[in-house]
Amino acid sequence: MKLSDGVEWALHCATVLAAVPPDRGLTAAKLAEFHDVPSAYLAKHLQALTRAGIFEAVPGRRGGYRLARPASEISVLDVVDAVEGRLRPFLCSEIRQRGPVAGPKSDYRKACGISRVMYDAENAYRDVLKHTSLTDLITGLMADAPHAAVRGATWLQKELSS
Amino acid sequence: MKLSDGVEWALHCATVLAAVPPDRGLTAAKLAEFHDVPSAYLAKHLQALTRAGIFEAVPGRRGGYRLARPASEISVLDVVDAVEGRLRPFLCSEIRQRGPVAGPKSDYRKACGISRVMYDAENAYRDVLKHTSLTDLITGLMADAPHAAVRGATWLQKELSS
DNA sequence: GTCCCTATACTCGGATAGCAAGTGTCCGAGTATAGGCGG
DNA sequence: CCGCCTATACTCGGACACTTGCTATCCGAGTATAGGGAC
User: Fold this and answer.
1) Helix (H, G, I), strand (E, B), or coil: what is residue A132?
2) Which of A23, A76, B45, B158 could be joined to B6 by an S-S link, Cβ 3.0–4.6 Å?
3) Nucleotides of D under 7 A from a protein CB
4) Cβ count within 10 A of residue B124
5) Orientation of helix B39-51 relative to helix B76-84, angle to 10°
């Protein structure tokens, strides 16, 4: 069980975009430069986020990406699902209905207890991410590393003005 | 994020082994036959479970696998970690300390807030699995599909007597 | 001076290679058993 | 008849190919801009 690196990048990009005025945008190249990650690969994930309706892409010159809705209405889960593709980590293949002791289908009306536990765990995981919004993330970032936040804001202002 | 198929197999095997008397064992081939899965590949996971101290392997003729401790003292998390290798789904690469706005390390004393949320979610996931034991699983299986449980017990008795 | 048209530069978007990890399989090392032999 | 020894058959264990999906990259389609020309 491993998450794509893109999840971390996407979350950081989202916090940066939250600081961009709604009528402006930031290009994939700038976002990649800010985090020092391969821009071509980052672009791939930004596209996925756009398809999911979390980011908005502005084409053409002076284009770029921006949040599709207020940061308070974007959860961490939204971002993770968009990048990872919303596939369940555990998939029950009903092996209890296979082998020499398999019986009629009517014997297995209730879902397999093992899958139930795995799904419960998955839901607990998702709940935590669901109840954390981008604003929560930003509040935390500013409290944890205020100096870095100020430097980031300064850099952003410089990029937007040019 | 995807879990290995072996997780499901391992959990089902564990519930079967829980029904085997402590002084007996069940071979990898028999476990594979019971679930109709490739025995060679299942053996690989059984070895991992043995290394993790959850199963015990009895070598030689009339050997096989059995639980290393009572079913009530084995959690689902133990099995999942043994098969999956206990690697964290999310790994913070501290990209906030990279790029043009990177600052002195003293600015980043506290852990990245993004990683904190991801780890909280992971812990919620693990907690659910941790608080479910093999006995809980078996109780559920027998309640959900009693006929199948009886057939399984009969098959097992036949195999053990021969 | 104002409007329109055209060429341009820059953006996103999807299609294309490379690589690592999971998936699946095999054969060799080790051990309890079963049978035969000797006492 | 009893004990011991040897050969055997069966088990687990680790080493070896293959496939899927993530990682990384590129070039083409589309658009707002900027400049020049006509009115």
Assistant:
1) coil
2) B45
3) 8-15, 22-27, 29-33
4) 17
5) 110
The gap from C-alpha B133 to its chain's centroid, in whole angstroms, comes to 11
Question: One digit per residue, pLDDT tens: chain B, 162 residues?
Answer: 889 999 999 999 999 999 999 888 899 999 999 999 999 999 999 999 999 999 999 988 888 999 999 999 999 999 999 999 878 889 999 999 998 999 999 999 999 999 999 999 999 999 999 999 999 999 999 999 999 999 999 999 988 876
By C1' distance from the Cα of A46, the closest nucleotide is: C12
Question: Cβ A103–B5 below 8 Å, yes or no?
Answer: no
- The C-alpha atoms of residue B88 and residue B114 are separated, in whole angstroms, by 15
Could A96 and B12 be called an inter-chain contact, meaning their C-beta atoms sit closer than 8 Å?
yes
Which of residues 107-136 of A have CB within 7 Å of strand D?
Answer: none
Strand D closer than 7 Å to the CB of B57?
A: yes
Question: Who among B2, B34, B37 is closest to A87 (CB)?
Answer: B2
pLDDT in tens, B103-135: 999 999 999 999 999 999 999 999 999 999 999
Nearest to A108 by CA among A120, A100, A98: A98
- The CATH label, of 3.40.50.300, 3.40.190.10, 3.40.50.11720, 1.10.10.10, for the domain at B5-161 is 1.10.10.10
Query: Which of B92, B97, B116 is closest to A35 using CA atoms?
Result: B97
Q: Would you say the pTM of this structure is higher than 0.90?
A: yes
Within 7 Å of a protein beta carbon, the nucleotides of strand C are 8-15, 21-27, 29-33
CB proximity A41–strand D (7 Å threshold): yes
Of A3, A9, A117, the CB nearest to B89: A3
What is the 3-state secondary structure of B44-93? Answer: HHHHHHHHCCCEEEECCCCCEEEECCCHHHCEHHHHHHHHHCCCCCCCCC
3-state secondary structure of A26: strand
Rounded Cα distance, A108 and B125, in Å: 26
